[in-house]
Amino acid sequence: MATKLAALILLAAFIAGPAACEGASICFNGWLRLPSYNPRLCRSRPDIQRRQRIPSPSGSGLSYGYYNSRCPSAEKLVTAAVRKAVAANPGIGAGLIRLFFHDCFVRGCDASVLLTATDSNNMDTEREGPPNKDSLRGFEVIDEAKAAIEAACPGTVSCADVVAFAARDASYFLSNRRINIPTQGGRYDGRESFANETDQLPGPFSNVTELQASFAAKGLTSDEMVVLSGAHTIGRARCMFSSSRLSEMDPAFAAKLRAQCNGDDNTNVNQDDVTPDVLDRQYYQNVIDRKVLFTSDAVLNSTETIAQVTENANRAGAWERKFERAMENMGKIGIKTRGDQQGAEIRKVCSRVNN
Ligand code: HEM
């Protein structure tokens, strides 16, 4: 009951805006149109306030070819499901890459983002959190792959690994096979998921310092933050996250957005107007040309990060290799492995914990 109430307050705060956040410890700062970060209105999380980078995730317990002997068809079954989904709708591939990011940043890569039924019977899971609700997509691809895998080798392959393999495969297909992320297996699934913990995800109104801090809190560098932001070269976003900054954009791009959005905050627009369905380095040229949607994209033009942006825009192949490494690193955040008997398992169905 208390959790339900907390989630309701959170949602109301998200809708009502910054004033409603006064005194709240969780405020989804970065997901609200604050004029600038104001600690009186929104106290950000202590780990983010510290702005210290924790050590890079070690990934200890993970290995390549983890399922070769345990379930030889596992990775192929994921690839088949992703290939089919991306061929039908490239946007689902974008959704799968984002799903992996949102899984790993909250409770580590433990498939907590997929849960609707948890150990504590909490109903307000990550899926209900403001960054995820009515936004994440690709769940049905994960479910299809998992069902095929369970039929071949029951109780062997975790949902967390399915999410990681699916992000790898979506990146491969959407990049026209130019990006191939080395992806280890061996993650276990968590048994808890809480909507309020999605405040660890950086928001579209974040400035550079906030972006760096939220990645540092997960053991990722500022470079990795810039490199991973390149995923905004595919997929879509709701107008509510860009309509307040049209005047800061390239005028022709802004005019096109204004026409497409037509005053409706919930309309979706492509993130990359040039090559919307290709995972390529176009994003960085868009940052330079002021043809990006979010504050969090545009601020990469700042002195601290512009050198990486320019290099990623100009050096063919450089960003693709860095993206592979950064995605692999992200897949090591907070993992649970075979040794963690408490609170970790191989789920049978990805949306609910085993009994
Ligand atoms: C750097 C901080 C980031 C911020 C502030 C951010 C924010 C957002 C927002 C607000 C959306 C649109 C959601 C909607 O309108 O419903 C979005 C979409 C997306 N983001 Fe990010 N994101 C960030 C980093 C990342 C990273 C690291 C990845 C993956 C590696 C990623 C992948 C995507 C993709 C692929 C989409 C499109 C999803 C779809 O079409 O379904 N983002 N992001």
From TrEMBL:
Domain of life: Eukaryota
Annotated GO CC locations: extracellular region; plant-type cell wall
EC identifiers of the protein: 1.11.1.7
Record site: Transition state stabilizer: 98
Binding annotation for heme b: 232
Signal peptide positions (record): 1-21
Record text on cofactor binding: Binds 2 calcium ions per subunit.
GO molecular function: heme binding; lactoperoxidase activity; metal ion binding; peroxidase activity
One Pfam short name: peroxidase
Reaction equation(s) it catalyzes: 2 a phenolic donor + H2O2 = 2 a phenolic radical donor + 2 H2O
Keyword Metal-binding attributed: yes
Cofactor or coenzyme needed: Ca(2+); heme b
Keywords from the UniProt entry: Calcium, Disulfide bond, Glycoprotein, Heme, Hydrogen peroxide, Iron, Metal-binding, Oxidoreductase, Peroxidase, Pyrrolidone carboxylic acid, Secreted, Signal
Binding site for substrate: 202
Span of domain Plant heme peroxidase family profile: 61-354
Cystine crosslinks: 71-153, 104-109, 159-350, 239-261
Compartmental location: Secreted
Functional summary from the UniProt entry: Removal of H(2)O(2), oxidation of toxic reductants, biosynthesis and degradation of lignin, suberization, auxin catabolism, response to environmental stresses such as wounding, pathogen attack and oxidative stress.
Protein's name in the database: Peroxidase
Phylogenetic placement of the source organism: Eukaryota, Viridiplantae, Streptophyta, Embryophyta, Tracheophyta
Gene transcribed to yield this protein: LOC123444518
